[in-house]
Specification:
Helices cover 48% and strands 0% of the residues. Helix 1 (4-17) packs across helix 2 (19-27) and helix 2 (19-27) packs across helix 3 (29-37). The longest helix has 14 residues, at 4-17. It is mainly alpha-helical. It has four helices and no strands.
Length: 84
């Protein structure tokens, strides 16, 4: 299984090269992730794709909720704590 960082890099690189893929990723990230990696994202998890431009940069912060030791280790290893 790929790490969250490997998935992010793959999706980002492909979106830069392929405008149709980019549009699909923005409109249906769960569907694209399922097609690309066979990952099924649970309904209770939302994925938002934000497009940066020359005036806007997006910074993703981790959740504020208290994480257990296993989740903290997963995050520090570059893995998503939600099982991706």
């Amino acid at each position: 299984m790929k790490s969250a960082e490997e998935i992010r890099v793959h999706l980002t690189e492909k979106a830069v090269e392929d405008s149709e893929f980019r549009s699909r990723l923005v409109s249906d990230p769960k569907g694209v992730m399922h097609e690309e990696f066979g990952i099924t994202i649970p309904d209770n998890i939302e994925i938002q794709v934000h497009e940066s431009d020359m005036q806007t940069v997006h910074l993703a912060l981790p959740p504020q909720a208290q994480l257990n030791e296993e989740q903290l280790e997963a995050i520090s290893a570059g893995l998503c704590c939600c099982g991706l």
